[in-house]
Amino acid sequence: MDLHPTVETTAEDIASMETRGAATIGAAAAAALRVQAGESDAVTPEAFRAELRVAGRRLHETRPTAVSLPNALRYVLRRMDGDEVATLRASVVKAATEFEQRLDRAQSQLGAIGANRLQDGDVVMTHCHSTDALACVEAALDQGKHLEAIVKETRPRLQGHITARALREMGVPVTLIVDNAARRYLDDADHVLVGADAIAADGSVVNKIGTSGLAVNARERGVPIVVAAQTIKLHPATMTGHTVEIEMRDEREVVSDEDRADIGDVAVENPAFDVTPPRHIDAIVTESGQFPPESIVTLMRELFGDGVAEPWVEPTNE
User: Fold this and answer.
1) Percent of the chain with pLDDT over 70
2) Do residues 220 and 284 make contact, with C-beta atoms less than 8 angstroms apart?
3) Count of structural domains, the chain
4) Which helix (H) or strand (E) element contains residue 105?
5) Same domain, yes or no, for 180 and 282?
6) Which residues of this UniProt protein bind substrate (predicted)?
7) Is 128 a catalytic residue?
8) Do residue 100 and residue 121 come from a single domain?
9) Is 254 exposed, middle or buried (0-12, 13-18, 19+ CB in 10 A)?
10) What pLDDT does 317 receive?
11) Is residue 308 in some structural domain?
């Protein structure tokens, strides 16, 4: 069966990373499904369902490890319902529109919820760069609270510099520290506030390498660690974060060609992420509320299912 050109174009743009970023990828996938449904010429409910599943598979195969992409497909296709083509079409269009509207509101809603954890005069420690974490700080500032920040530089790509600049533009006093100094400066922090690349069903958090070690130190110091992440980062197909494949990045982020010539023949590994177990996390803040990590699975299943019976897979009984 033929797919609408919008699905093909969207798939190509996601695969080539012309379309990038969690929210942007999710919105593009939902919009492509809405177009496919709205312009489908299927004459039977069975044909319509099959056509939307094919569209979902085409989109999913582009970047299956980008968590927001399968979540967009799950959200829309799980809500496809009806006994006639017209009702099926309407349900897909409605679900896709709802999903896009959720994305539009998500960060501001998340920020308002996260701001409630921050008190006037608090000092937050950050790691890497997260617009969701920054949204919590910005919302707290809008409430009239004074905050200060201790920002880890976050090697090897120094994403902490981006965070430091963003916080200064908000008017937040910033102390930038080397990563290895985090334990020392935790005594001056009231919260650790980080983002997430993915959250597993057990509440484990996959985030920039160094997050897990920071969380262990924060727990030992009695500093609460809060994860700010939109629900599109939830990963229902992954029971624990330790089953997520960790990207290994180019060694030249760590050692230059000149360094390599000086050091000699040694192995260099540069993992992009690590996994923080739920026992080291105090709360996960989303646009749907804040949750203890062990409870996040309930929200995950409500929005996206259990990640087992994927809605773009051909049912065996059809």
Assistant:
1) 98
2) no
3) 2
4) helix 85-115
5) yes
6) 20-23, 63, 207-208, 233
7) yes
8) no
9) middle
10) 57
11) no
